[in-house]
Amino acid sequence: MPTDAEIAxxxxxxxxxxxxxxxxxxxxxxxxxxxxxxxxxLQYYNSLPPQPDGKLVLVTAINPTPAGEGxxxxxxxxxxxxxxxxxxxxACLREPSLGPCFGMKGGAxxxxxxxxxxxxxxxxxxxxxxHAVTSAHNLLAALLDNSLYxxxxxxxxxxxxxxxxxxxxxxxxxxxxxxSLGKKNGNPRETGFDITVASEIMAILCLATGLEDLMDKLGxxxxxxxxxxxxxxxxxxxxxxxxxxxxxxxxxxxLVQTLEQNPVFIHGGPFANIAHGCSSAMATKMGxxxxxxxxxxxxxxxxxxxxxxFDIKCRKAGLQPDAAVIVATVRALKMHGxxxxxxxxxxxxxxxxxxxxxxxxxxxxxxxxxxxxxxCLNHFHTDTEAExxxxxxxxxxxxxxxxxxxxxxEGSAGTxxxxxxxxxxxxxxxxxxxxxxxxxxxxxxxxDAIAKGIYRARDVQLTxxxxxxxxxxxxxxxxxxxxxxxKTQYSFSNDPELIGAPEDHxxxxxxxxxxxxxxxxxxxxxxxxxxxxxxxxxxxxGMSVDADGVISxxx
Length: 555
What we know:
Layout: H1 4-8, H2 16-22, E1 30-32, E2 38-40, H3 42-47, E3 55-61, H4 71-84, E4 89-93, H5 98-102, E5 110-111, E6 114-117, H6 119-123, H7 129-149, E7 165-167, E8 177-179, E9 189-191, E10 193-195, H8 200-207, H9 211-219, E11 222-225, E12 231-233, H10 240-247, E13 254-258, E14 263-266, H11 281-290, E15 293-297, H12 302-317, E16 323-328, H13 330-336, H14 349-367, E17 373-378, H15 385-398, E18 402-405, H16 407-410, H17 416-428, H18 443-453, E19 457-462, H19 464-475, E20 483-486, E21 505-515, E22 520-525, E23 544-545, E24 551-552
Parallel strand pairs: 3-15, 3-16, 4-14, 4-15, 7-10, 16-17, 17-18, 19-21, 20-22
Antiparallel strand pairs: 1-2, 2-13, 5-6, 6-13, 8-9, 11-12, 13-14, 21-22, 23-24
Helix pairs in contact: 4-17, 7-8, 7-10, 9-10, 13-14, 14-15
């Protein structure tokens, strides 16, 4: 079986100007990065006459195995399938992070014959957006520590400073560190690193509407508190202008193509288990203006990515989704049915039947948002006919459209039926989107709504630290913020081993972080880390590049 890279190398990308033509983007609207990728100039885009928005389709999933269930691959395959049946369609994806690329998960450019290209560029440095976010974040950290060094004119209490540094790499050794050691380097204090995709600046980039809005949000980042217990914001350092300078190119959406030469915007990359997990609102809105259908994804299972897409991104960007596709696999269903990870390739229809509780739970949850759903059963070569039929029959009994999709092996030919069903549910016009909770609820009530309504928790237990920070947020006027839950992607609970569709569990919130710039509160649950670690044998161990510059081992 060929690798993703070997398949990608069979295709020569078309000049990016030809891909832009499919969306009606003129040459002067492009900022080229070589022959096969470009950014779209915002001045050009803003000068276009407004058009009625196209249809918005979200791709989400059940709780995944560590290898993932092919959500990005499905987003690309569905985009190709919709184009194949005559619907002018663009995909909106997140940019891959180097952390999981060199860690456990590998790249995030799709797979098989449902990929975006140039795959290796996209998975690595791409157009430099992540480097810009990293630099802007660390610039603010440097300005903050410099202010503390030069007599602390903002009267910041160092113990209240929560602004860490970031790096786009899984490096557990940097989670907790001490800085300013040595003579004339300032006052030592404990801090640490987060991964870049957990940076509030990444979240801001993905929710900003333009450069002016970007810098306004950057200025509202909380640095800490002063001696009078008042919040100190980044604008007190006059930092937003310099950060905006570093981000002025990163805010422009990136245009690439699928193997079938259909347009894809790839922009922004917040993680879904430790951040809000959606590509940029700007790219999504651009897609809605330029295409009949815009297909986007939200990271990990629907309990994380879809909930945050609906309650954070759609709420803040004013988006109205028309349909959702939930990706399931026989492998993941068997895992939720009690099969160990080493035995997922063995036939076991009974385990699939037991694991369907996870799929049913996600379908119930998505119905709460008023968005019609189609199920994509993403095919793996180890799936048997008996296992496949168990899933399709269960969906028939639930009255949910479901399709076995083979886009990894067949490209758009493997998603045409799925595409037709998506069009059918969209054209039926039954979507009546509504967020899970109202902004007027207290922050604890919002956490409670997610924990009980989506996770089916018995109750929420907050530490004293978390409770105190929530009270401070409300006292400071941030009680209307939506909630971004940071928890494991493998379970509805905060215990990754609690598979299936658990109920009556206790959701523990140990800390909260107020992203006052991005405009949401991050609630940290369980053992989830904002700086992941590498596995015992990381993907990096199998990568190399030859004398001609050809990369191997990257997928």
